[in-house]
């Protein structure tokens, strides 16, 4: 971690990931039988690949306050799975993907994990949010099931040897945010509003505060709230205003951020706002006036308006299939499935291997691969599950996320 934090000081962030699969192929049908074209296509789609079937599970919130994250992850993972299967699968294996809703709740996430185990899951791509991910990793480690989280950023979320991640870790998000604000001279007087009951939020705040001093940033107010008091932020905003904050740092999720932006507007308090990946989803909050989000900045590994070929192809395919512009969480999940593919092929995974044997092989392979993904080029992983790649930032401009 010391190495990763030092990299963050130099403008580099870390990420990481994990996952596992099984089944047999029926004989090809006789071409002389001349079935209806549609029936033949359906039969071909339903038939397992020659190498069997690899079952990958997914967990995240598709309902509730963090559903924007979970839906994006589920959709993008399905898109990647469809592409991989169309291209011949993983080591000749067809991928089956099943996603379970956890409503951003740790207990429900563990229940979802048990459901996937009963289904026959061999690897896990999840969970999406940090607290549920931390709860599930204790279970997957006990079962020795490979786990790759696209977006569980808490340190504890990959504290077990079977777990890796794609996204920023909380310490790196906090340190890199302070560095970005300081190096780009965005502000020197900063207030922070954070959720003291949430490991994601407090983890980012703590490392942001530590790095702020190195960047010439004065934290003029640090105001906490909890899960039981996240509907009225007038006191926190008033203290930030009175302290002369030029910028308010929000290491929180998008629902609470939308309330803060709305209440700041009613108070005629107009500082700059800067957040992390939790703010991705802000523009999709129901009944939120997105004009209030203009100029909001956030640290993220993905910008949908980037002009590289991979991003353009992904955004186009995602929009065509789901009718929406993909966010960072979608990009993390899309990368996660392809990272699993790369590691599984490196490890020589086969469908007849046990989940535990697959996990052991994947743990080694993850440290031997290099992946060029949507969320970073030349991504590598260390044995502790952390990835290494460069950070990016976006600003909301004209109702869209724009690369900075």
Structure description:
With 404 residues, this protein is an alpha/beta fold. The chain folds into two domains: 17-168 and 308-385, Rossmann fold; 171-300 and 394-403, Rossmann fold (3-Layer(aba) Sandwich), CATH 3.40.50. The protein is built from twelve helices and 15 strands. It has a seven-stranded mixed sheet, with helices on both faces. The chain has a five-stranded parallel sheet with strand order 2-1-3-4-5, sandwiched between helices. The chain has a three-stranded antiparallel sheet with strand order 11-12-13, covered by helices on one side. Helix 1 runs parallel beside helix 6 (170-183), helix 4 (106-119) runs parallel beside helix 5 (130-143) and helix 11 (328-347) packs across helix 12 (355-366).
Present the secondary structure layout.
Elements: H1 2-9, H2 37-46, E1 53-60, H3 67-86, E2 94-101, H4 106-119, E3 123-126, H5 130-143, E4 146-149, E5 163-165, H6 170-183, E6 189-195, H7 199-212, E7 218-225, H8 234-242, E8 247-250, H9 254-266, E9 272-275, E10 297-300, H10 309-322, H11 328-347, H12 355-366, E11 371-373, E12 376-381, E13 387-388, E14 392-397, E15 400-403
Helix pairs in contact: 1-6, 3-11, 4-5, 6-7, 11-12
